[in-house]
Amino acid sequence: MDTTVKTLMDWLQGQTNSSLFIQKKEDEDLDQVRLQLREVGYRPDYRSIDGYTDGTALVLHGNGSIRTGHVEEPLPQDSYVIPLSGLAISKAADNGVIMQTDRAHYSLSVDNDNRR
């Protein structure tokens, strides 16, 4: 496993049983996710039906919701996938990670406003 991926995975595993706030900016779209992280999984190379989540990825398992625009909905299948192609971390600290992939820019932080 690449050291950058391991850094991200280690941070996420340290947040197990915590509430996370994830912001993902892709093109001009901003998604905001609140997730009660139960488990972190590593998925090796994979081919999806829609092609959107092809390749290696981290799968965050837990209950949560996603807000796109003004609409908030439950996460499908109680999971959130972060494709890892082109992963670069610009900040990794106890309280959060800022990173970029080939597709999007992410900000992950402990959700102090939504602790359970």
SSE layout and pairing:
Elements (H helix, E strand, L loop, with lengths): L2 H12 L4 E8 L2 E15 L13 E12 L2 E4 L4 E5 L4 E6 L2 E5 L4 E6 L6
Antiparallel strand pairs: 1-2, 1-8, 2-3, 3-4, 3-5, 6-7, 7-8
Pfam family, one: YmzB
InterPro entries: YmzB-like (IPR058926)
Key attributes of the depicted protein:
about 120 residues; mainly beta; eight-stranded antiparallel sheet
Describe the protein in words:
By secondary structure, this protein is mainly β. The chain has one domain (3-114). It contains one helix and eight strands. Strands 1, 2, 3, 4, 5, 6, 7 and 8 form an eight-stranded antiparallel β-sheet that branches. Strand 6 and strand 7 form a beta hairpin. It is globular. The relative contact order is 0.24.
What is the approximate shape? globular
Mind telling me the C-alpha Rg?
A: 13 Å
> How far apart are the first and last residues' alpha carbons, in Å?
31 Å
What is the subunit organization of this protein?
single chain
Main β sheet profile: 8 strands, antiparallel
SSE-based structural type = mainly beta
| Element-by-element helix/strand order | HEEEEEEEE
**What is the count of distinct domains?**
1
Residue windows where pLDDT falls under 50 for at least 5 positions: none
How many alpha or pi helices?
1
Mean pLDDT across residues: 89
Estimated share of beta-strand residues: over 45%
- What is the total tally of β strands? 8
Helix content: 10-25%
